[in-house]
Amino acid sequence: MKFLLFGALIASQMSFADDTYDAVLAHLSGIEETPTQAELQALGDGVETALIAIAQDDQQPRSKRGRAIVALGYFPSSDSRVVVEGALQGEDNYMARKACYAIGAGWGTDAVPLLTNALQADNVHTREAAAVVLGTVGGDNARSV
């Protein structure tokens, strides 16, 4: 619910230009790879807001929304964290897995508690993603989980 309410808030306050949204969307059109942080930052202001909007837009293909979730890891603001953590806790296992990667990319060692909780997910792929990411961000603390 928190995830959906935040989406409505963002949608009502979109401050990015349509060309930024379209440019970000074009960068998310790859087959599997998420654009790099440098590629997205080169697009200028409004990228994070566009990524949030894309991640929450059910009209966009799931693959693009998933890549938007991963890319939000490059922008670990409180707004992005709400969206990514909402995806981690949501019912869509694909988005939860993508959220694991975003959290690992942007949260640093603060990711450990969230990813440790994700190890209890019902979906094996979400658990696997959490374990892989924990191994890269958590250091010795994660290995003892």
Description:
The chain has 145 residues and is mainly alpha-helical. Helix content is 68%, strand content 0%. It is built from ten helices and no strands. The protein has helices at 2-12, 18-27, 37-41, 47-55, 62-71, 78-89, 93-106, 111-118, 124-137, 139-143. Helix 5 packs parallel to helix 7 (93-106). The longest helix has 14 residues, at 93-106. It is globular and about 40 Å long.
Quaternary organisation of the protein chains: single chain
Query: How many β-strands, per DSSP?
Result: 0
Radius of gyration: 15 Å
Cα separation of the termini: 30 Å
Helix content: 55-70%
What fraction of residues sit in β-strands? under 5%
Q: Overall 3D geometry?
A: globular
Order of helices and strands, N to C? Answer: HHHHHHHHHH
- Report on the biggest sheet: none
SSE layout:
Elements: H1 2-12, H2 18-27, H3 37-41, H4 47-55, H5 62-71, H6 78-89, H7 93-106, H8 111-118, H9 124-137, H10 139-143
